[in-house]
Amino acid sequence: MLKTDEWLSLSVVGLVVLFIFLSISFYTFLIGPNSEGPQTIIEPSSSFIQIIFLSVGPAVALSFFTNAVSGERSKLSSLLVISSGIILIVGMIYVSFLIPQVKHIELPIWIANTPLIFVVFGILLFFLGVIKYRKSTQTRNTTLDSN
């Protein structure tokens, strides 16, 4: 049976995957059919803020919460956080190739630089997972040495 921090880390992975898929669909919508842009008028800032606050914002908060709360360190939990960081980095690299294809809408500077911003968050998640993994191996080694 999984522990609480493992379930929370699994939800971090799910939220990161949700953010990647929502970002890809958002930019694909902005590209439009036949690269002609969307057929309706859209204000991209408010739409993308909703995507951020529904997916990757809670993922980053949960990863910090999991790291702070989990008393007994779990290797599975730390591996899940490491994988969510890698997924976020790879997904944002893919999204960065979609942005130049948006031609008919003037994107705000922060939306155009979103992949770079979230690659930094992916690196942060990766290093947070590595730190958790090292602590879990140190905790396990000290308990084995004391026995």
What labels would you give this structure?
147 residues, 78% helix, 5 helices, mainly alpha
Question: What does this entry look like structurally?
Answer:
With 147 residues, the chain is mostly helical. The protein contains 5 helices and no strands. Helix 1 (4-31) runs parallel beside helix 3 (75-98).
Average pLDDT figure = 86
| Proportion of residues in helical segments | over 70%
Q: Provide a count of the helices.
A: 5
Number of strands: 0
Rg on CA atoms, Å: 18 Å
Tally of discrete structural domains: 1
Shape: elongated
Summarize the main sheet: none
Q: What is the helix/strand order?
A: HHHHH
Strand content: under 5%
Task: Determine the structural class based on helices, strands and strand pairing.
Answer: mainly alpha
Ends apart, CA distance between termini: 25 Å
- pLDDT below 50 for ≥5 consecutive residues: which ranges? none
Question: How are the secondary structure elements laid out?
Answer:
Blueprint: H1 4-31, H2 44-69, H3 75-98, H4 109-112, H5 114-146
How is this structure best summarized?
The protein has 147 residues and is mainly α. The chain is 78% helix and 0% strand.
